[in-house]
Design a protein that fits this description.
Layout: E1 2-8, H1 10-22, E2 26-33, H2 44-50, H3 65-69, E3 72-78, H4 86-91, E4 92-99, H5 111-117, E5 126-129, H6 139-142
Parallel strand pairs: 1-2, 1-3, 3-4
Antiparallel strand pairs: 4-5
């Protein structure tokens, strides 16, 4: 069974955490919320408390007990707002990020806003592996 940690904020992070929790192939061991949590969307901390899922109260991924013990099978980031350092990335068997825009066209923040401004008639999301350099893992997508 794959041990999973979900990092992030909002409704989508809550739904992703719920999916992993319900999956027979995954063990959701902890969540790392963005702190302070935004008030305009669902609370990942509230969801974790309601579902008895441990969470890192500080929101700092470096305080994960699994980081200390080397038990990072899969880390999934969804709107986590901190740069993740190389030592953490390298300690994960796999670390993925959900970006709410098609890459590489809509890199950076607010990709949906840019798509609306550009009057796009369709939009998408990208799930990509996180690498130590910012946006390094996106080179394969551009080809």
């Amino acid at each position: 069974m794959t041990r999973v940690i979900v990092m992030g904020k909002g409704t989508l992070a809550v739904r992703i955490a719920g999916w992993f929790q319900a999956s027979p192939d995954h063990d959701l061991v902890r969540v790392v919320p963005v702190i302070p949590e935004p008030t305009w969307t669902d609370s990942l901390v509230g969801w974790a408390e309601e579902n008895d899922v441990p969470f890192v109260a500080s929101g700092d991924y470096r305080q994960l007990p699994e980081f200390e013990s080397g038990e990072l099978d899969l880390v999934f980031s969804c709107f986590y707002d901190k740069i993740i350092k190389a030592d953490f990335i390298e300690s994960c068997d796999r670390i993925l990020n959900l970006h709410n825009g098609p890459l590489p066209r809509y890199r950076g923040v607010s990709p949906i806003n840019w798509a609306l401004k550009n009057e796009e008639d369709h939009h998408g999301v990208t799930i990509h592996e996180i690498t130590p350099g910012i946006d390094d893992g996106l080179g394969e997508l551009a080809q």
